[in-house]
Design goal:
Residues 1-23 are annotated as: Disordered. Keywords: Cytoplasm, Membrane, Transmembrane, Transmembrane helix. The chain crosses the membrane at residues 44-64, 88-112. One of its GO terms (molecular function) is LPPG:FO 2-phospho-L-lactate transferase activity. The protein contains 19 helices and ten strands. The chain is of the alpha/beta class and 457 residues long. The strands form two sheets. The chain has a seven-stranded parallel sheet, with helices on both faces. Strands 5-4-6 form a three-stranded antiparallel sheet, with helices on one face. Strand 1, helix 6 and strand 2 (166-170) form a beta-alpha-beta unit. Helix 6 runs parallel beside helix 8 (192-201). The longest helix has 30 residues, at 90-119. The protein is elongated, with a radius of gyration of 28 Å.
């Protein structure tokens, strides 16, 4: 039986993209965007052309039957002499003049719009993206993505080309790097993964670049990103990020929504197979000592979730878990009681995006079935589908990861139940020297799993 999603079981696949064709693909993409239904542009261009034609006919009637008859006659005789009827019939000359006039009118409108856009601070080359976002993407599938780390922001950067109805629910238990320093100093939630997601969904390339700028010098600033400091400022001003969420989305021009799984500072606690407990996710891998993670929890345990988060889950058409670190990105976001309860009660299908490789220390020795089993144990619901990559990882990449203690995450030893949940597609980024997901390919594969896509809508 064929799979209605168009995704297949594990197998060879993939393709190589060329940087030379990137510009051509971008031009083709923008051309298709102009032709997208519901954009609210083609209808007005058509109306303009029809009205221009009617205006031309009306003006011709006025000049031929009114006081300008003499002028119209002289124009026709002049055009007739200029174009030489034996070379170019007079009616063809008339159509040519009319086409030139219509083209000039359209050019004048385009230049007028360009001037108006510049005066409002919107770059003309971004106008199409803004119109497309508000008109077409606003009707896209309602997708909720749960997790953290670079995997989640990578996914969002691909999904925002398909829908404006995106909600990212981000784990905020990170206690390392810039996030850890700000948490300790201000008693706030970890802002790092939130910053990455805001940058991925921002409609402004300039803002996205600024958010990710990391200070390389300056006492107290070195190591911090501008985005982290911005969120820390808003958190301090509003007494927490909960009251600043609306301002953040508006200021950063986010295509969708980004919310923390909880607005209360929390610490990840991992229980290992040798009975030890490790507090804090930043040092988890280093303290494993050959043991495996049996379970994780958050302290404090009873953490509140934002009403907007629960509302987004309730209205979701698809819930995506990952990609990202299993025990330090995906599961921590599921440990907020109200978030887990809302996902369990949701009628939307849940998709787990499998990592490409295991993570040294954290998931060493774990297979894909172990990953799914861990999610089920902490969430209380087994993912409906597991999306995995079908493109073989190059041997040199495998060797480089193996030297660090990581292996390709595969289906070896997987049971029949998991096999039935697998959906696969070529997801490996063709131009990346690391084993990473291609955002565009991953987003396309997930969109095909939405109910409306499966029904052919």
């Amino acid at each position: 039986m064929s799979d209605p999603t168009g995704l297949q079981g594990p197998g060879p696949g993939g393709g190589q993209g060329s940087s030379g064709g990137r510009a051509a693909r971008e031009q083709a993409r923008r051309a298709r965007m102009w032709l997208s239904p519901g954009l609210g542009v083609k209808r007005w261009l058509l109306l303009f052309a029809v009205c221009t034609l009617l205006g031309a006919v009306g003006f011709l009637h006025f000049t031929w039957t009114g006081p300008l008859h003499f002028t119209a006659t002289r124009w026709i005789l002049w055009l007739n002499a200029l174009t030489k009827p034996e070379v170019l019939p007079l009616w063809v000359a008339g159509i040519s003049v009319m086409a030139l006039a219509l083209g000039g009118a359209l050019l004048s409108i385009a230049m007028l719009n360009r001037s108006m856009l510049r005066s409002t601070g919107t770059a003309p080359e971004q106008a199409l993206d803004v119109i497309y976002s508000h008109r077409t993407l606003s009707r896209g599938a309602r997708i909720v993505a749960v997790g953290g780390g670079t995997g989640l922001s990578n996914l969002l950067s691909g999904l925002k080309a398909h829908s404006g109805n995106l909600t990212a629910i981000v784990a905020v238990s990170d206690d390392g790097g810039s996030s850890g320093r700000l948490r300790e100093a201000l008693d706030m939630i970890a802002p790092g993964d939130l910053t990455d997601c805001y940058a991925a969904l921002s409609d402004s390339p300039v803002l996205a670049r600024l958010l990710l700028h990391r200070f390389g010098r300056g006492e107290g600033l070195e190591g911090h990103t501008f985005g982290n400091l911005l969120l820390a400022t808003l958190s301090e001003e509003q007494g927490g990020l909960q009251g600043a969420m609306r301002d953040v989305h508006e200021v950063l021009r986010v295509r969708g929504q980004v919310f923390p799984a909880t607005t209360t500072p929390t610490t990840l606690v991992a229980r290992l197979s040798d009975g030890r407990e490790v507090r804090g996710e930043s040092g988890l891998a280093a303290q494993m000592g050959g043991a495996r993670v049996q379970s994780v929890r958050l302290e404090p345990a009873h953490l509140p979730a934002l009403p907007a988060v629960l509302e987004a889950i309730d209205g979701a058409e698809l819930i995506v878990l990952g990609p990202g670190s299993l025990f330090t990105s995906i599961i921590p976001a599921l440990l907020v009681p109200d978030v887990a309860r809302a996902i369990r009660d949701s009628a939307a299908p849940v998709v787990y995006v499998a990592s490409l490789m295991t993570e040294p220390g954290e998931t060493t020795g774990l297979g894909l079935e172990d990953h799914v089993r861990a999610i089920t144990a902490h969430l209380g619901r087994t993912p409906d589908w597991v999306l995995m990559n079908s493109t073989p990882v190059p041997e040199d990449v495998r060797a480089r990861y193996a030297a660090e203690g990581a292996q390709v995450l595969d289906l070896v030893g997987a049971g029949g139940d998991l096999q039935g949940r697998i959906r696969s597609a070529p997801l490996l980024h063709p131009e990346d020297e690391q084993a990473r997901h291609d955002p565009a390919a991953l987003a396309q594969a997930l969109v095909t799993l939405t109910p409306r896509s499966r029904l052919g809508l």
